[in-house]
Write a structure and sequence with these properties.
about 200 residues; alpha/beta; Dihydrofolate Reductase, subunit A; globular
C-alpha cells in the first residue's frame, strides 16, 4: 500500500493559506498572500523538487487544482518542476468540477471521497502527495487517511488565515522522523502519525 503524504507550507502560527501569491486565495478577506517569497532558498527548493520527483501522483482539492491548472501548463518547456507537475497523474476531489478536466493527466474522483482515496492508496506505485487543498486535508484527517506530514514551517506569524490544523481537527500524536533547517530559517519537518491507519472495513483495536 502506498502512502498518502500531506506536504504544506505553513507559518509559525499554522496558517497555510495562499503561500505563493497575493491573489492566490483571498477567501475570508485574506490579505497576506505570497508570504513564502522572502524565506525560500535552494534547500527548500531541492526538497520540493525531490518530493515531487519521487511521488506517484498528486491528490488535490478544487481550489488548489484550479490554481495549479492555470499556472503549470504555461511554464517554460525546460522548467524541470513544471515538467514533473504536468506529467504526474492528478486526482481531483470536487463536487463542482466536471469532466473533462483541462489539465493533462487529471482525473476527477467520484463517489465517496474516503473510499476513493483508500482505493488510490491500494494501487501499486509510488506515494501520493497532497499540496495545499486545505478543505480536502481536513476530510483526509477526519478519515484517518494521512500517513505522513511534510511541513515547511516559515519564520513568520500572520495572525489570520486558514490553518492546517483547525479547531475540529482530530487529536493525533505525531512522531518526528526527519528535520532540517534552511539558510533562511525555514524548518522542514517530517512527521508520521503514531496510530496506524486501520484497514477499511475492520474496527480499530
Amino acid at each position: 500500500m502506498r502512502k498518502l503524504i500531506v506536504q504544506e507550507f505553513v507559518t509559525l502560527d499554522g496558517v497555510m493559506q495562499a503561500p505563493g501569491g497575493p491573489d492566490e486565495d483571498r477567501r475570508g478577506g485574506f490579505e497576506h498572500g505570497g508570504w513564502i517569497s522572502q524565506n525560500s532558498d535552494q534547500i527548500e527548493g531541492k526538497f520540493i523538487r525531490d518530493s515531487i520527483a519521487t511521488s506517484g501522483g498528486l491528490l488535490l482539492g478544487r481550489t488548489t487544482y484550479e490554481i495549479f491548472a492555470s499556472y503549470w501548463p504555461l511554464q517554460r518547456s525546460d522548467d524541470e518542476l513544471a515538467k514533473m507537475m504536468n506529467s504526474l497523474p492528478k486526482y481531483v476531489a470536487s463536487t463542482m468540477l466536471e469532466e473533462p478536466l483541462k489539465w493533462r493527466n487529471s482525473t476527477l474522483l467520484k463517489g465517496d471521497l474516503a473510499e476513493e482515496v483508500w482505493k488510490l492508496k491500494q494501487m501499486n506505485g509510488k506515494n501520493l502527495i497532497v499540496i495545499g487543498s486545505g478543505v480536502l486535508v481536513q476530510s483526509l484527517m477526519q478519515n484517518n487517511l494521512v500517513d505522513e506530514y511534510r511541513l515547511m514551517v516559515h519564520p513568520i506569524v500572520l495572525g489570520s488565515g486558514m490553518r492546517l490544523f483547525r479547531e475540529n481537527s482530530p487529536k493525533t500524536t505525531l512522531k518526528l522522523i526527519d528535520s532540517k533547517t534552511t539558510t533562511t530559517g525555514v524548518v522542514i519537518l517530517t512527521y508520521q502519525p503514531e496510530k496506524k491507519t486501520p484497514e477499511r472495513g475492520k474496527k480499530e483495536s
